[in-house]
Design a protein that fits this description.
- It is built from 13 helices and eleven strands.
- The protein is of the alpha+beta class and about 350 residues long.
- β8 (about 300-310) and β9 form a beta hairpin.
- It is elongated and about 70 Å long.
C-alpha cells in the first residue's frame, strides 16, 4: 500500500491559505487575495533584450504587467494586451507617484484608494496594481468579446466615456506585447539542476529500452505518455505547450490528459493532491524541489513528473529544455514534496 501523507503535510501555511482563499466564498476580498498571491510567480521573469519605443524603466514595467497578467489570468494573451494598453495610456508605463491635481491616482494604472483600488502601497507596486486591474477586468461579464477599449473603460471609468484614450494605444500595446513575449527569459525561476541524464542526447536523457512500468494505473499512463511525447521541447517561461513549456506548465498539461486540472504554478501544485512518501513514489507523481530560485522557505521552485525506474522528466531551463534525469540528479538540491494529483 502506498504511504499517503495527507493533504496538508508537508505543505506550508502559505499554500494552505492560498487554497482556502481560492476555494472560498468568491467575495471581492477573497478574489483579490487569490490574484495577489498568484502574481508572486511573475517576479522571476526578466527581459532578455530591449523593447522598441520604450526606455529601460518602461520596458521593465511592461514586463511586469505582462508576467503579472499572465499569472492572474491563466496566461490570457488578450488580457495581457488590454492591461498593457491601459498602463500605457494611464501612465506611459511610468510608475508615477503622487502629483498635484491627479486626485490621488497612483502607479502604472493610476488607481485611487478612494475608488476601492487597494492601498497606496499596492497601487505603487506594479505587479499588485496589475493584478488588481486584471481581477476587475475578468470579473466584467463578456469582457473578452467586448471592444478592448470599451472593456478597459468599463473597468477604469476614465473621463473618456467611449474609451478613445485607450483605443489609440491598442496597436502599440500589441507590438510591445510581441516584443516582450519574444524576449522573456526565466532567469533562475523554476530552473532545476543540470545533471543526471543517463540516456543518449538523441532521446533527451531517456534510457534506451525504457517502458512505462506495468504497475502504472490508466490515468498515470496517460500522464507519463503525454510527458514523454514532449521530450526535447523548449523551455519558455510561462509556456504550457504545445511545443514549449516551463516546469509547472509541463506537469499541468500532463495531468490534464488524465482529467485533473492543476494550477500553472509550482507552489500551488504542491497542495493539489495528496503528499506521498518518497519511498512510495509512483509514475505520474509530481516531484517538487527547491529549484534555483525558490519562492520562499519550504516552498518549491521546480517540479517534474516521475516516470518510474528512478527517472524524472521536467522542463529544466532555457538551455536544457525538457529532458529526463535520474531521481538522484533531480533532487540533488533538495526535495520539498512528492504529490499524487490523482489522489486529491
Amino acid at each position: 500500500m502506498r504511504v499517503l501523507l495527507g493533504a496538508g503535510a508537508p505543505v506550508a501555511a502559505f499554500v494552505i491559505g492560498l487554497v482556502i482563499v481560492a476555494g472560498g466564498t468568491g467575495g471581492a476580498a477573497d478574489q483579490q487575495a487569490t490574484v495577489l498571491a498568484l502574481v508572486s510567480q511573475s517576479q522571476c521573469a526578466t527581459l532578455g533584450g530591449p523593447v522598441p519605443t520604450l526606455d529601460a524603466a518602461q520596458a521593465a514595467n511592461a514586463a511586469i504587467v505582462v508576467s503579472a497578467t499572465a499569472a492572474a489570468s491563466g496566461e490570457n494573451a488578450h488580457a495581457e494586451q488590454v492591461a498593457l494598453m491601459v498602463a500605457l495610456t494611464e501612465s506611459g508605463l511610468h510608475n508615477d507617484g503622487p502629483a498635484a491635481g491627479n486626485d490621488g491616482s497612483l502607479g502604472l494604472f493610476q488607481q485611487r484608494a478612494a475608488a476601492g483600488w487597494g492601498t497606496a502601497a499596492q497601487e505603487m507596486n506594479p505587479a499588485d496594481a496589475t493584478a488588481m486591474f486584471v481581477q476587475r477586468l475578468m470579473n466584467l461579464p463578456g469582457w473578452e468579446t467586448m471592444t478592448p477599449w470599451l472593456a478597459a473603460q468599463a473597468v477604469q471609468r476614465s473621463a473618456f466615456s467611449g474609451g478613445s484614450n485607450y483605443s489609440t494605444n491598442w496597436a502599440p500595446a500589441g507590438s510591445i506585447l510581441a516584443s516582450i513575449t519574444g524576449n522573456f527569459t526565466a532567469g533562475g525561476c523554476g530552473g532545476g539542476p543540470a545533471g543526471g541524464m543517463v540516456g543518449p542526447a538523441t532521446s533527451f536523457g531517456l534510457p534506451v529500452g525504457y517502458t512505462i512500468p506495468a504497475s502504472a494505473t490508466a490515468p498515470e499512463r496517460l500522464v507519463v505518455t503525454y510527458a514523454l511525447s514532449k521530450l526535447g521541447s523548449r523551455y519558455v517561461w510561462g509556456a504550457a505547450g504545445p511545443a514549449a513549456f516551463d516546469c509547472s506548465g509541463l506537469t499541468m498539461m500532463a495531468w490534464r490528459q488524465a482529467g485533473v486540472n492543476l494550477g500553472h504554478y509550482t507552489v500551488s501544485q504542491m497542495s493539489e493532491g495528496l503528499a506521498v512518501s518518497p519511498a512510495a513514489v509512483a509514475p505520474g507523481d509530481l516531484v517538487l524541489t527547491p529549484g534555483s530560485d525558490p519562492p520562499g522557505p519550504g516552498l518549491p521552485g521546480h517540479v517534474g513528473v516521475y516516470l518510474g525506474d528512478g527517472l524524472v522528466e521536467s522542463a529544466v531551463d532555457p538551455q536544457i529544455g525538457v529532458v529526463v534525469q535520474t531521481w538522484a540528479g533531480f533532487v540533488s538540491d533538495g526535495l520539498d514534496a512528492v504529490v499524487d494529483p490523482g489522489a486529491g
